[in-house]
Amino acid sequence: MKNKKNPHEADLRGTLISVLTVGILIAVMWFAVYAMYVAL
Questions:
Q1: Gap between the Cα atoms of 22 and 29, Å rounded
Q2: pLDDT tens digits, residue range 1-40?
């Protein structure tokens, strides 16, 4: 039983990856909008 991993660890890792992906997408969109604003 010791070598069995907690089944919630995979869920938390997937959640972390999803949150990071969404955060990066939002940051990229904000940077793109800012870049367009500065280019005007």
A1: 11
A2: 455 666 666 678 889 999 999 999 999 999 999 999 999 8
Long-range CB contact pairs, 25-34, < 8 A, 24+: none
Count other Cβ atoms within 10 Å, centred on residue 27.
10
The structure tokens listed for 11 are 């869920």
DSSP string, 1-40: -TTPPPHHHHHHHHHHHHHHHHHHHHHHHHHHHHHHHHH-
Global pTM?
0.62
Angle at 37 between CA 31 and CA 35, to 5 degrees: 35
